[in-house]
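Schema walkthrough. Field components (list of strings):
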Amino acid sequence: MKKYIFAAVIALLGFSSCRLSDGGIRDYNKVPRMIFNKVQYATCNYVPKQIDYVILAEVLMQSDNVLLGTLTAQYMETYGSITVEENKYLFHKSQYGESNSEICVQTDGKLLSEGGEWIIGRGEDKIVFEIARIKGKDGTPGRFEFSTGGDIPEDMTPNTEALRYDVEYELVKEASNYRIDKQMAFEGWVLYNSTDEYNYLKGKGQYKIEWHTVKPIVMKGEDLCSYGFDLLYTNLDDGTTHHVGAFLYNGEIFYERYFE
Amino acid sequence: MKNKTLILLLTVVVTAVGSVSAQVREKKIVKDDTQTVIKHITKMGDESIVTKQIVLPKRIDKHDIRVGVGSLGLMTSLFLDDWGCYGDLDLAATSFNTSLKNADTYSTPRWFVGIYSLSYTYHHFRWLQYGATVSFGASTCKTRHTLTNEVLENNNLYMLSVMPTVRFVWYWREKVQLYSSVSLGVMTDMYEILPWGDVTLVGCSFGRKFFGFTEVGFGASGIFRIGMGYRFDAAGKNKK
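Field assembly_structure (string):
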């Protein structure tokens, strides 16, 4: 009898324990991924789009606006348009888009390939917020320098302080369409001075992320083909740093952490 | 010859019937908690023969101690389950700096290790027992560093309750008993002290001196409980 009682108790010891929650995932890539995601929009979405406007303006200027209709249909959203004025190209976003602001590329009358120096910014008929300055690279066709450092409206992230791109591009004709292939190498840094307030939980922190390309960003049209970033995160409150890398190969992102 | 056999048979039958009808038998049974006394009274004419048989119960136990283990219940999970709060610290509501600090950590699964109870009861009557119960339950969870896997923080949760207990035995046999019980006392999760209780809806104990038990209830000891116990302070020296 005692044997059975004892065995029953031992059996229940196994049944009484159970797993209440799965816990977290041991993710080695979480830190580099978080840091990279902070800058990815600036480097792989926002700035390349601004660079496209510069390239379109150069192509239009070069073709004497012959390609205006074609490029408008290809690159502007529905109801969007491109207006050509003297030394100015206005890119009107969709009438029904989220933002009513427009992009203005102000030229100096010279092509970038001739050493021209342009400005790109926001504004309806003139630049109200300067986004970047563009300078032709040594007078070489298909190359220019794109430098931010001007004011970016607060609704855009990140709060870019200084970012310099070296851009090489090529306009590729495919049947009746044109595709912009570009390669962008850059370096710069961004300072975040964020006060995050979410409902009842408040947290604030200052941090800085410096980054540059170790492999230039290569894009074919809208498709990201490859890149390699080297990023250094510094927590300005306690001095913690993280040195990480992010690389895109064959559609997959790989991360690396560097420990000194 | 045949007649002689028949007469002999008749004589035996008449004698037997006669002797039975001459006896009056009576049986009296007196029972109490300590013993049962059976009196056999046989009257034969003017004489009566009384025999007394005392039957002692095999065991009279006044005390029992029991230990048991219980499963998780809704009430206990309020204190032993963090409901996923420690699952992932990268909440949207924290700042980037804070989220990044926690990004190099991960939490292990939370395991419930059982609710263990120890109780003592005094058997005032066969149907009424009272005493005290102490229950302890815990769940374990750790925060570890992602790269080195070292333990950074213990996120264990504990629950300790102390309660007076009253048990009602509504079916009593020497080897099997069915009962219900109520306990009301206090509980602490190491942060605060709260009034707490436990109810056993149905419990069954099986055994004599050493016994096992199973219970179904709710409260501090969990939903399903099982354990073993020991009864002592036997009265009546029954050698069996």
